[in-house]
Structure to design on (696 residues):
């Protein structure tokens, strides 16, 4: 097992953990911001104010149809070229994933609000609640409960997709693994480290994402039995 | 005897659903099975074509034992060609039009030619007054029409026996009649009909024998006349809301 | 930035788009086939196969496609399994897609009423005929929206195969900018335009297909 690369991985493990921290950080910040903006967008998309709806719809489709890899690339290189400033991959990543996540959640919330039976709106207004109170006390709690499974699912997708940030130079778990692989090769060209390392990465990602997927399914079952 | 049931037992876990059932069904007769919901009548029906496995006892079709232990699928396929079934929830295949619903079984199970199967289907639909619905999809039909098609679909297989499992239970009252009329028209055609239903008037007019079940047991087998006007057991009198006199209580 | 080189970019992007479309359609085909077979296996609760399918679906849904591709392209050759970037992309995308399609089609199967399958049994229909005439057509029309969504997802995901040197759209975009930063803007525009030219007609066709299939089944 001389060539398996396990020893190199063990030696570089602290660095790998730094990478993991970066991965989780980008995913977590984008996730929290996505939830906040997502709910806001969902409500905005339901306002039935035509110009706003159209603009948001176009943006939603843009984020749906264009892969985040292209957004990362366009913003990272495009902004630096146009404004002649050195763009920070970390900031760009958070911007892209936040936008992506916000529109995903926004559409979920919008879809859920528009599927609510009319009488809920009418009876809350009949109770004398104003629009803001209606959202706060009647609609929001329901939306939160119903959209939770999909939102947890989005967290899984965010974590998986953040591996793309390695392409714009962010030192995430993938990027650091690749530099470990390169150094090991340089010292030992017969090393099998790229096999071992990528396998380890697959397992690490699986260990993070699988429990989240189970959680999402679990919540979904709970919610559908409400 | 067309169908003979001896000492049949069936339980789900510890819950006994059918307890020592004995029943003889003559060829060409109409047997109506009645009882409160949950008395086991539907399960009994489903045992007759192997949709439920029985725990003990025997069922004979023309003196041939059909409930041998460990019977494989092929065995039940052969039996099910001879014993058709129509159930409460229509169960027409939603992605096929009326004609395709009807010819699927004849073509795939009985391997008949398409032409023959279509002719048969057309003839049957005519008989129940649905000739104009031949290319309609199930979603375009009313409940009563769906159920009539379901009956025709069972008839297409040329069974000897048809099991009707509460076929009118899910219908609007206005449509119950048209379905019952179709079942009635099958009487005296050599077909043996076994009908689970709550329709008393139908039972009284059409049945050759009434089987009354209570709590997983057959408590009374009699003619409609006797069953409806002088039932012999307390359970049947309760079911029919008749006064229970001391003579019977003993 | 000279206009000549901007026009020179167009054939490059046209070729790259062709690669994307070719890899996408092939992977969608295999993914669909895997999904169909595996969801039927799940329906029949085939003992060992069932656990394998569940593990496969869980694994591919919970790991990044980027790392799957790296593993197959750079990792597997270390154990003497080697593919070129085309084959590798098709393998990875088909397996990811297969996992998503299995889940989608299986939920379609689960949505078919059990009463209906029961009456099919009562009619004496064999398992094979039940699968061919009742289960597959209905499961597909129930899950058609998920199937088309997965197909669009797979088409987009072709761009992640840039990392294993597949000469698709994003790969070419990165390559050109690496040489000529002055072409950043036209390259960015052409990248987005290429994708829209592939995906917009695709999603239009899919939504028509969906409407047609759903209509046949459930009406307007």
């Amino acid at each position: 097992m001389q060539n398996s690369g396990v020893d190199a991985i063990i030696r570089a493990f602290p660095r790998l953990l730094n990478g993991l921290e970066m991965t989780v950080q980008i995913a977590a910040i984008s996730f929290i911001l996505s939830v906040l903006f997502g709910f806001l967008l969902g409500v905005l998309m339901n306002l039935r104010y035509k110009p706003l709806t159209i603009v948001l719809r176009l943006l939603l489709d843009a984020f749906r149809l264009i892969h985040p890899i292209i957004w990362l690339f366009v913003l990272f290189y495009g902004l630096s070229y146009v404004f002649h400033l050195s763009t920070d991959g970390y900031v760009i990543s958070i911007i892209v994933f936040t936008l992506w996540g916000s529109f995903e959640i926004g559409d979920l919330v919008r879809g859920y609000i528009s599927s609510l039976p009319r009488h809920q709106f009418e009876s809350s207004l009949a109770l004398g609640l104003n629009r803001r109170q209606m959202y706060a006390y009647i609609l929001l709690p329901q939306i939160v409960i119903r959209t939770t499974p999909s939102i947890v699912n989005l967290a899984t997708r965010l974590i998986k997709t953040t591996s793309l940030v390695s392409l714009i130079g962010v030192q995430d778990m993938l990027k650091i693994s690749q530099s470990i692989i390169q150094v090991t090769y340089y010292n030992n060209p017969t090393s099998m480290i790229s096999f071992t390392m990528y396998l380890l990465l697959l397992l690490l990602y699986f260990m993070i994402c699988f429990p989240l997927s189970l959680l999402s399914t679990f919540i979904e079952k709970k919610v559908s039995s409400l | 005897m067309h169908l003979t049931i001896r000492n049949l037992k069936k339980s789900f876990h510890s819950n006994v659903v059918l307890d020592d059932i004995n029943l003889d069904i003559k060829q060409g007769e109409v047997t109506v099975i009645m009882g409160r919901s949950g008395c086991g009548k539907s399960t009994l029906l489903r045992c007759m074509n192997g949709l439920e496995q029985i725990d003990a006892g025997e069922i004979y079709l023309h003196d041939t034992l059909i409930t041998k232990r460990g019977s494989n699928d092929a065995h039940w396929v052969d039996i099910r060609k001879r014993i058709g079934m129509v159930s409460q929830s229509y169960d027409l295949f939603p992605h096929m039009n009326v004609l395709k619903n009807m010819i699927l079984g004849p073509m795939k199970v009985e391997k008949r030619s398409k032409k023959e199967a279509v002719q048969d289907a057309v003839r049957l639909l005519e008989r129940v007054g649905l000739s104009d619905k031949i290319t309609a999809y199930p979603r375009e039909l009313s409940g009563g029409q769906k159920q009539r098609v379901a009956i025709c679909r069972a008839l297409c297989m040329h069974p000897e026996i048809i099991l009707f499992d509460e076929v009118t239970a899910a219908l609007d009252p206005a449509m119950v009649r048209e379905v019952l009329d179709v079942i009635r028209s099958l009487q005296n055609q050599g077909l043996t009909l076994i009908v689970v239903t709550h329709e008393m008037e139908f039972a009284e007019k059409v049945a050759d024998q009434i089987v009354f079940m209570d709590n997983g047991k057959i408590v009374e087998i009699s003619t409609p006349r006797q069953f409806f006007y002088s039932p012999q057991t307390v359970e049947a009198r309760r079911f029919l809301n008749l006064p229970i006199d001391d003579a019977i209580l003993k | 930035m000279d206009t000549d080189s901007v026009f020179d970019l167009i054939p490059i992007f046209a070729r790259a788009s062709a690669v994307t479309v070719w890899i996408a359609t092939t992977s969608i085909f295999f993914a669909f086939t895997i999904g169909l077979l595996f969801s039927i296996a799940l329906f029949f609760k085939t003992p060992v196969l069932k656990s394998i399918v569940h593990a496969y679906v869980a694994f591919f849904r919970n790991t990044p496609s980027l790392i799957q591709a790296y593993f197959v392209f750079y990792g597997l050759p270390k154990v003497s399994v080697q593919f070129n970037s085309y084959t590798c992309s098709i393998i990875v995308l088909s397996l990811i897609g297969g996992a998503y399609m299995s889940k989608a089609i299986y939920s379609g199967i689960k949505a078919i009423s059990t009463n209906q399958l029961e009456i099919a049994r009562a009619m004496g229909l064999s398992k094979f005929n039940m699968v061919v005439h009742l289960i597959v057509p209905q499961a597909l029309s129930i899950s058609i929206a998920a199937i088309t969504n997965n197909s669009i997802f797979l088409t987009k995901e072709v761009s992640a195969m840039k990392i294993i040197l597949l000469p698709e759209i994003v790969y070419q975009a990165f390559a050109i900018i690496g040489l000529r930063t002055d072409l950043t803007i036209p390259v960015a525009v052409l990248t987005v335009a290429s994708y829209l030219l592939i995906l917009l007609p695709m999603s239009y066709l899919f939504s028509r297909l969906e409407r047609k299939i759903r209509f046949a089944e459930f009406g307007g």
About this structure: Residues 37 and 117 of chain B are 37 Å apart (CA to CA).
